[in-house]
Amino acid sequence: MPVKIRELIADLERAGFVNRGGKGSHRNFVHPRVSRPITISGKPGDDAQLNQVRAVRQALQELET
Q1: In whole numbers, what is the pLDDT of the chain averaged over residues?
Q2: How distant, in Å, are the alpha carbons of 2, 14, 15, 17, 49 from that of 64?
Q3: pTM of whole model > 0.85?
Q4: C-alpha 44, offset from chain centre
Q5: Which of 27, 28, 37, 64 is the most exposed place for a label (fewest CB within 10 A)?
């Protein structure tokens, strides 16, 4: 079963990312220890795209190191 947008958002928020807003269905999440913002687009019930899942995983890995 594919990952949902709401799951990615929940993972980011649990890790301390803050939604700084966006335009339309886009949300930009920032964290002081991560080099670049993570952009998530789509409705919460939509399936996440592979590039969105990768971006979230990379950001969470960057926090761990």
Answers
A1: 96
A2: 25, 13, 10, 14, 23
A3: yes
A4: 12
A5: 64
